[in-house]
Amino acid sequence: MNTCDEKSCEMKSSVVSDDRKVAEYFDSAAATWHNMYTRKDIWGDIHQERLARFLALASNLPLPKGSEVLEVGCGAGHAAVALAERGHIVEATDVSQSMVDLTMNNAVAAGVADRIHATVGDIYKIDFRSGTFNLVLSIGVIPWLSSPGAAIEELARVLKPGGYLLFTADNRSRLARLIDPATSPLFSAIKELFKKIFSSSDHLAPEPTGIKSNQHSLKEVDDFLVHAGLERLQCRTLGFGPFTYFYRKFLPDRLEVAVNRFLQRLVDLEVPLIRSTGAQFVLLARKRP
Questions:
Q1: d(CA 57, CA 43)
Q2: CA 247 to each of CA 51, 191, 202, 250: distance values in angstroms, whole numbers, following the listed order
Q3: By CB atoms within 10 Å of each CB, which of 61, 131, 157, 225 scores lowest?
Q4: pLDDT digit string (tens) for 164-180?
């Protein structure tokens, strides 16, 4: 028996197709994302700072040594390895078998393979009982999903009451988007024209061909959290750049990194306006008792 009408079935099929394309991309680009944490350009700088901040947030949580932690979208396992080195027991999942293999290779190299178990998994159907984990991380995953709200509900499901969720979402009001005439809402009439002209540029975000990450407002993120039974405890924006003019970079790598670090310092000082315009939201939430 058909359980959905033609239109809803087409929409569901499109969602599954988009998520599959993203999974295929990350599987094929595993080495690129593994090397992200040693790169010296703007992308490397942002991702390395993001990882450091997540680990700092996790360290400040009231989690006893040996706590059960889940990372969904573990990538090459840098966060999972760091958490295992701090004495936690880490379950790590990713849609990409290549990423899972890298995670275990890095765990072996770090001498923590006995505290990390990595498997291929689906963020929409996490293969653990409800209320299993003290801490769940999902770094750089939500922006790529067709149904971020459903994913956050599933992340919340496997948290213990009072447990913590650390995750990122891409900020729709990012500074780099606002100052480029081709992407700024102030120039929406010409946006599509220049997007077609310069769509071949290789200077933009490292996104899979034909797929782009989804950006949200903080209100939308808060709505996701409320529906999932979570409360936001902290939020800070992170990452500035690459800076473009009609999709083309105009700053050399070293200067771009310096500008990113300067603006990030202003965010940390809670400077009005700037503090809300980083590229990503770094969020800490807690599951309500």
A1: 21
A2: 27, 10, 9, 9
A3: 131
A4: 999 999 999 999 989 98
List residues bridging with 285 in a β-sheet: 165, 232
pLDDT above 70 covers a percentage of the chain that reads 85
3-state helix, strand, coil in the chain (%, to 5): 45, 20, 35
Average pLDDT of the segment spanning 54-72: 95
**Are 65 and 134 contacting, i.e. CB atoms less than 8 angstroms apart?**
no
CB 123 within 8 A of CB 73: yes
CATH number of domain containing 269:
3.40.50.150
Pairing of strands 159-171, 89-94: unpaired
Q: Which residues pair with 230 in a beta bridge?
A: 287
- pLDDT one-digit tens code per residue, 111-142: 999 999 999 999 999 999 999 999 999 999 99
Q: Could you tell me if residue 244 is inside a domain?
A: no
